[in-house]
Each structure stands twice: as C-alpha cells, then as structure tokens.
Write a structure and sequence with these properties.
The structure is a single chain. The chain is an alpha/beta fold and about 250 residues long. It has helices spanning about 30-40, 55-60, 75-80, 120-125, 140-150, 160-170, 200-210, 215-220, 225-230; strands at about 5-10, 15, 20, 25-30, 45-50, 65-70, 85, 90, 95-100, 115, 135, 155-160, 175, 185, 190. The strands form 4 sheets. The chain has a 5-stranded mixed β-sheet. Helix 4 links the parallel strand 10 and strand 11. Helix 1 (about 30-40) crosses helix 7 (about 200-210). The protein starts with 5 loop residues before the first strand and ends in a 21-residue tail after the last helix.
C-alpha cells in the first residue's frame, strides 16, 4: 500500500444504495461495505472525505485522497487522468419519467424535452447528446425525482440502481423507469494516477468475489442493495484493458 496504515477515500454520500447517510448521519451502503472489507483485508484504517461528485476526480489527481467510491462508472475519458480498480459492479443508465406520461418511451423521445442530470456524471454526458433538450442540473437525485413527479422536468437520466434506490428511500410514487437501459456500464474504485494501491485493492476484490464475500455483502441488509435493487448479484468480468476500461459511453 502507498501508506501502510491509512486509506483516505473521497465520496459524496448521495448515491443510495451505494453511498449515503442514514437519519443518524451514519455513512452506509454497498460501496462503504466493500471498502470496509478491503481495508480489513489490507489491515489499513479508512478515513472518508465528503466531496461533491464533480470534485472527486480532482482529489485523486491532486493525491489528496487515495481512492474514491460513489458508484463511479469506468470510462476512457476518466481513465486518462486517474486510475481505477478492476470493475466490481455492472450497471447502466436509465431514464425515469412520470408514470402517467406516455410521450416518452425511448431516448429519441427526449428530444425537445427538459432533462434533469447531475454534473460530472455519464448521465449528463449522454443527455447532452440528445438534440433540442434543456438540461437542468441538480444537487441531489431526490430533488430531481421530486421535480419530475411534480412535472417541473420531463425526465431524469441516471444510473438504474441509484435511481431505484432514491425512489425507494424518498418514497417517490408517480415515477417509472423505461424498460431498456441506455448503456452498459461498470463501476470501479477511483484511484490516484499510477496508484501503488491498485494491485492490492484489485487482489482484495478478486479474493472477495472468489470466496463468496462479495455476494454476502450484496445480500446484506446493512447496505440495502439487495432490497433496493432487486436483480441477481452481478460479478463483472475481469478487466480487459489498461485500468480496467470496458465501456466507452
């Protein structure tokens, strides 16, 4: 490890069921449980730094953090400036619309509509490619989904599991997700460029997937992912290129 005793992890705790705060301000989630187990195996202490999502990668580039977790999608563009662990979760972008809105059934139907996105995300990148749209940025998925429910925006583009997680946690009612995902994406732990920690973290992740710990964490009630994201436990393939880049969205 770079520092044999500590691992500083930057995160924005606003992405249930991966990283979020309970009513008692306790940091919980699937990513948190994964980092806790990795730290246990590597015998290091974890310290979290709360940073807005669009500032996470800067903490890695400046090496003020050793790692970042926040349901972070591995992309070639991000891979140019930071390192990634091997992939640990398969996901994809989803479109959320009002349940009573029958106008939108595909990405093409979003042309001319008002779309809510979060800055710095793959959802924002994809939404910017839809012609004649008005993009509305938001600080929290909860506010975006509430605005959608109220009719202030026409759609929200965001990762499927985190969208489902926030719908469940915020008790959003009149919202549905389009059946087809827009992309296939893989989450990885963000790391500093040329991180000395990468081989150790990758080895820990590989061991966790091989010995059943990964699936145990996935199905644990403590992070809620199995209850919020009711799909089979998806263990992604091993990385195929530099820094585990798999998708190109």
């Amino acid at each position: 490890m770079g520092d044999p005793e500590t691992l500083i992890v930057s995160t924005e705790p606003a992405f249930p069921p991966f990283v979020y705060l309970t009513e008692d301000q306790e940091l919980v989630g699937f990513d948190v449980d994964m980092i806790t187990e990795i730290a246990r195996r590597l015998d290091v202490q974890v310290y979290y730094a709360y940073i807005p999502f669009d500032g996470l990668f800067a903490t890695l580039e400046a090496e003020t953090a050793d790692a970042s977790v926040d349901a972070i999608t591995i992309t070639p563009k991000r891979d140019e400036s930071i390192d990634f662990s091997r992939p640990y979760f398969k996901s994809g972008l989803a479109v959320a619309v009002r349940a009573d809105d029958n106008r939108i059934n595909s990405l093409q139907d979003l042309s001319g509509k008002k779309i809510a996105v979060k800055l710095g995300t793959t959802g924002a990148d994809l939404a910017s490619q839809v012609p004649n749209t008005q993009l509305v940025t938001f600080d929290s998925a909860e506010k975006a989904l509430i605005d959608l429910e109220k009719g202030n925006v026409d759609a929200v583009i965001k990762d499927e599991p985190t969208t489902l997680g926030m719908i469940k946690m915020a008790n959003i009612k009149n919202v549905r997700l389009l059946e087809d995902l827009l992309t296939e994406e893989y989450y990885g732990i963000g790391l500093t460029p040329n991180s000395p920690n990468k081989p150790f973290i990758d080895a820990a992740l590989n061991d966790m997937m091989a010995d059943g710990t990964y699936e145990q964490i996935y199905r644990s009630g403590s992070n809620g992912i199995h209850h919020l994201y009711l799909k089979p436990c998806l263990k992604p393939p091993l990385p195929t290129g530099r820094n585990s880049v798999i998708m190109s969205t």
